[in-house]
Structures are given as C-alpha cells and as structure tokens.
TrEMBL record:
Residues where L-glutamate binds: G460
UniProt keyword terms in alphabetical order: Acyltransferase, Glutathione biosynthesis, Hydrolase, Signal, Transferase, Zymogen
PTM comment: Cleaved by autocatalysis into a large and a small subunit.
Positions of the UniProt region annotated as Disordered: 483-505
Catalysis performed (reactions): an N-terminal (5-L-glutamyl)-[peptide] + an alpha-amino acid = 5-L-glutamyl amino acid + an N-terminal L-alpha-aminoacyl-[peptide]; glutathione + H2O = L-cysteinylglycine + L-glutamate; an S-substituted glutathione + H2O = an S-substituted L-cysteinylglycine + L-glutamate
GO terms (BP aspect): glutathione biosynthetic process; glutathione catabolic process
Name by which UniProt lists this protein: Glutathione hydrolase proenzyme
Keyword field contains DNA repair: no
UniProt cross-references to PANTHER family, sorted A to Z: GAMMA-GLUTAMYLTRANSPEPTIDASE (AFU_ORTHOLOGUE AFUA_4G13580) (PTHR43881:SF1)
Biased composition (Basic and acidic residues): 486-504
Record-annotated active site: T377
Pathway connected to this protein: Sulfur metabolism; glutathione metabolism
C-alpha cells in the first residue's frame, strides 16, 4: 500500500489534482489562505508585490523601515492608482527603536483659502460632490514623506524613489484588482482633461497583464527626489496644479500648497485585555476603534464562539454607539473642541454600554455626552533589523480621486473634501484652510511598553470595524496574524455620518461568505437587516513581533494582490 502523502504527490505530478483549498492546508484555520511569513532582519507587507519588493530592496541596501515605507508608498501610487497616489493624504505611526516610543504623523491637507461655506451653499449643494474641482483639498502625501524622512530616514530620497521612477518609465504588468476597477474610472472620469492621456492605453483601460507606463509621473517623482518637498509645494509642480485648477474653475491655489504643513501628533490608546491599542486622534476616525473596544471589553468572549450571533450583535451595537460620537465630534481640532480623552475613557464606555439591548438591534441611537462611507486606500507596514516599525496609510479617498489630473504631472488629485458637512454649526462643517474629517487610520499595538503588532485595514468607513475585528480575532479568539486577516468580515452601514446624515433605522449588516445561516437567522430575529456585499471589506497588512525569538511575523490577506516578504 502506498503512503497517502506519496499518493497525493503522484496525483499532483500527474495533473489529476488541479487545485487545493484553504481547508486542505495541514494546519491553521480553514479560512486561512496562507501561512504567516517569518523573518528576523526585515519585513514588508503591502497590497502589491512590487511595492513589497521595493521596500525589501531598500532594507537590504542599508535603509531602515522608514526609508522602505516611503519607497513602497511611492511604488503603490504607480501600481495601484485606483486607491492612492501623491495627490492624496497620508497618516503614519512609527515605533522608534532608539527612544522606544511611538510617534504619530498627520499629513492630511486643508481646504482652499478661497472657497467658502457660503459659496458652496449658494450653489444649492447638500453635499460636496465626489468629483470635479470642488472636493479637491491640498495633497499631504509628499510632505508626509519628507517629514518622516527628516525625522527618521537615512537613505537619500533619490534612491528611495528610484524604484517607482524606474517602473513608471519601463512599465509594469497591471494586477487583478486594479484591472477590475480601471474601466469604471475611465468611464467616470474620461470627460475630464488628461485622464485618458495619463491612464488609458490607446484610449482603453489596461487589462490584467497589460504593461502600463506613466512617464509623466516618473518626471514628477524625479523632480521631488532632486528638489525635495518644496519642488512639489512651491516649485513648478505647484504652479502647474494652480494653473490647472484655475482652468477647471477650481479653488486650490499655489498659496494653499505653499502654506501646507503636516503635524506630529501624540497617538491615543486604550488597553484591551492587557494590550495597548494605538490610533491617531481626529481629524481621523481612529478613536472610533478605541471606543468600540472599550465597549466590547465589558463582555466576556471566552465562552462566545467567533461568528456567533452574540459576537456579531454585540460588535454591531458597539459600532452604532461609537459612530454616533464619530458623526458629532470628529473633525479638525484646530476648528472644533473634541473631548478625545473623555471619548476613549473606560467610564464613558461603561455608560454607553448600558444602552445596548443584548436581544434587540437598536434602530436609532444618539451621540453621548462624554464630558459627564466608501473609500479606497492602501495600507502598508515595514519593520527593520534595528526594531523600527512603521504603520502607514495613504489614500486619494474615493477611487482614483477627483478626476482632476493636472497637465503633465501623471497623477490625480484627491476628493477628500467630499467629507465636509455643509450644515452650519457642526464640528466638521466646511471652512477655508480646514482639514476635513478623515477615514484613513494606521494602527499599532504594544504590550508592556514594547511593540506587539503594526497593522491596518484599508476601506473607508469600514476601517474602525476592521481594526476592532483584527484585535478581537487575535486577543479574544486566539488567531495568528494571517488568520486574523483572512477571517470572514462583518460590516455595517447606515450609521450617522460626519457629513450630516442621521441613522433612522437599524442599518444593514453585510457579511462575507463563511457565516452559517443559523447565525444570520438569529440576527434577523433580533431586528437586524442582513445582506451580502461584494467587496468593501477593506484590505489588511500586519507585522507582529516576537521579542523572545526576535522574529517578525508578516501577514497580508487574499482580498488584495498583496505580498508579505522578509529576510
């Protein structure tokens, strides 16, 4: 009798077994798509293999995690233009091994000086549109790169950006996810100048495997590499943006770009069952994840199975409460008083938890008194041999951005300004030179003052939900970093928003494949509406650190085209 493993090998060799499935792996959860990647000297996890390889190349050539993260982000703007680029904003959390401290960077841009709330209201708008010149705010990404580099970097910027410049000139094969979204972008934005010239091949969207080049972006990146951040914000790039926006009837000007600054901020944390989870404060939505975790910590999940009705119901009800506060309070702190300390306090969570009915879905909740949407993003994380770790997120907001592609520059400006409210008197109401509410959030976990995991989950308003699910999957349900990201996800829409919408019913839960019908039926009996959404569940990368063996554990999930690699 042949050994069963030998039989399997013979079948594979003979071509009789054409595929395997996640549940056929020898170990791990049945939904895990691959094993964790482990290495000691460096690790990079991004949503595209070429970006991961750019980061690894920088690490191998003597660069640190910060240098490698910038190289990966620059590459991402080229190979995944449907979700990010230098026309967008950036946030980062850095663990600095020398000082043994976390540093937060808010590199988000502000609205134009010359655009006013009165002008927007005069147009009869209830919301700022998602395309055209009106939603364009100052792109903060490039300044973010140079702020990170000035404080922590050591590799010269021309070398860091060389990978993206070379691929922009020589071309790269378009991967699956980008190819899926590209035709929609051209159909939507093809009416605007320079869009087809920049993003089409012979007038059509590139297909999977087509070679795509962006020489204009290569030229722009070369100018930035040689001239620094001022080449973008004060040089001829800024003048090109100014001239184009005037031609399009827009408001973003050379003065808006010249006056732009990023801000170093203190990360905010809460302790969840012995682990300190860190997010950045508003104008980003990061503390919504901390508010949810504080509420959920009051429940014992040790006897509650993952994916059970009790797990999902508690999770969704906590989200509703946190998102009411998100809608009311989160905004640019330079324009609004935001009680961050109180919002993330355990005492406040205790009071909010009392509003949850464990047997029934809430159809409406109000924001508390703590004083007692669809978006597209990239997330990446890098770690180096010295122990530095970077959690970085960057986005144009909705898809490719606003449709505004300045002449000869090779990139699209973001539409982040869509996220202001146009209702007078709210924290997030539009004002000149104000940062909008931001969805993009990097995250970090420490334990006993040492790094435990750098992670993030891209995906618009889903991001706080994604962060909480990763934390719970690992801490409450005992998953490893890869399993935590591959596990089927839970989303919920219909909450109140910082743009002025109010929740008037229980909203809609959408679940990925993998949840049993018995769970769905139980949730519906509690008053939840449950559906299925294709996509929209974000994309995750993580690096966990094992201090005992000094080993990094890298993970990237199957929903994107990403790669985790180390050495």
């Amino acid at each position: 009798m042949k050994h069963p493993l030998l039989v399997s090998a013979l079948l594979l060799a003979g071509g009789l077994a054409s595929s395997t499935y996640a549940q056929d792996r020898l170990s791990g959860k049945t939904f895990a798509t691959r094993a964790v990647v482990m290495a000691r000297h460096g690790m990079a996890c991004t949503s595209h293999p070429l970006s991961t390889q750019a980061a690894v190349d920088v690490l191998r050539s003597g660069g640190n995690a910060i240098d490698a993260a910038i190289a990966a982000n620059a590459m991402e703007g080229l190979v995944e233009p449907h979700v990010n680029g230098i026309g967008g904003d950036l946030f980062a959390i850095v663990w600095d091994a020398k000082t043994k401290k976390l540093y937060g960077l808010n590199a988000s841009g502000r609205s134009p000086y010359s655009l006013t709330l009165a002008e927007l209201q005069k147009r009869g708008l209830k919301h700022i549109p998602s395309d055209g010149p009106l939603p364009v705010s100052v792109p903060g990404c490039v300044d973010g790169w140079f702020e990170l580099h000035k404080r922590f970097g050591r590799t010269p910027m021309p070398k860091i950006l060389s990978h993206a410049i070379r691929y922009a000139r020589e071309g790269y094969p378009v991967h699956d996810e980008a190819a899926y979204y590209w035709p929609t972008m051209l159909n939507r934005f093809g009416k605007y100048p320079n869009v087809k010239e920049t993003y089409a091949i012979n007038g059509a969207a590139p297909k999977r495997g087509d070679l795509f080049k962006n020489p204009a972006l290569a030229n722009t990146l070369e100018k930035i590499a040689k001239g620094g951040r001022d080449a973008f914000y004060k040089g001829d790039i800024a003048q090109s943006i100014d001239g184009f926006m005037k031609k399009m009837g827009g408001y973003l000007s050379a003065k808006d770009l010249a006056d732009h600054t990023s801000e170093w901020v203190e990360p905010v944390s809460t302790n969840y069952r012995g682990y300190d989870v860190w997010e950045l404060p508003p104008n980003s939505q990061g503390i919504a994840a901390l508010q949810m975790l504080n509420i959920l910590e009051g429940y014992d999940f040790s006897q509650t199975p993952w994916g059970s009705p009790e797990h999902i119901h508690r999770f969704i009800e906590a989200k509703k409460l946190a998102f009411e506060d998100r809608a009311k309070y989160y905004a640019d702190p330079a324009f609004a008083k935001i009680p961050v300390k109180e919002l993330v306090s355990k005492e406040y969570a205790t009071e909010r938890r009392k509003l949850i009915d464990l047997t029934r879905a809430a159809s409406r909740v109000d924001a508390g008194n703590p004083a007692l949407k669809q978006g597209d993003t990239i997330y990446l994380t890098v770690a180096d041999d010295e122990g530095n770790m970077v959690s970085l997120i960057q986005s144009n907001y909705r898809g490719f951005g606003s449709g505004m592609v300045p002449d000869g520059l090779g990139f699209m400006l973001q539409d982040r300004g869509e996220l202001y409210s146009l209702i007078d008197g709210q924290n997030n109401t539009f004002a000149p030179h104000k940062r909008p509410f931001q969805t993009i959030i990097p995250a970090f976990i420490t334990k006993d003052g040492e790094p435990f995991m750098s992670f993030g989950v891209m995906g618009g308003s889903f991001q706080p939900l994604g962060h909480v699910q990763i934390v719970m999957n690992m801490i409450d349900f005992g998953m490893n970093p890869q399993e935590a990201g591959d596990a089927p996800r839970i989303d919920h829409s219909g909450s109140s928003e910082p743009t002025g919408e109010k929740m008037t019913d229980s909203g809609l839960i959408t679940l990925e494949s993998g949840y049993p019908y018995e769970t769905i039926r139980d949730l519906m009996r509690r008053g939840h509406k449950v559906g299925y959404g294709m996509g929209g569940y974000g994309g995750y990368q993580a690096i966990m650190y094992d201090p005992k063996n000094k080993v990094y554990h890298g993970a990237t999930e199957s929903r994107k085209d990403g790669q985790a690699a180390g050495f």
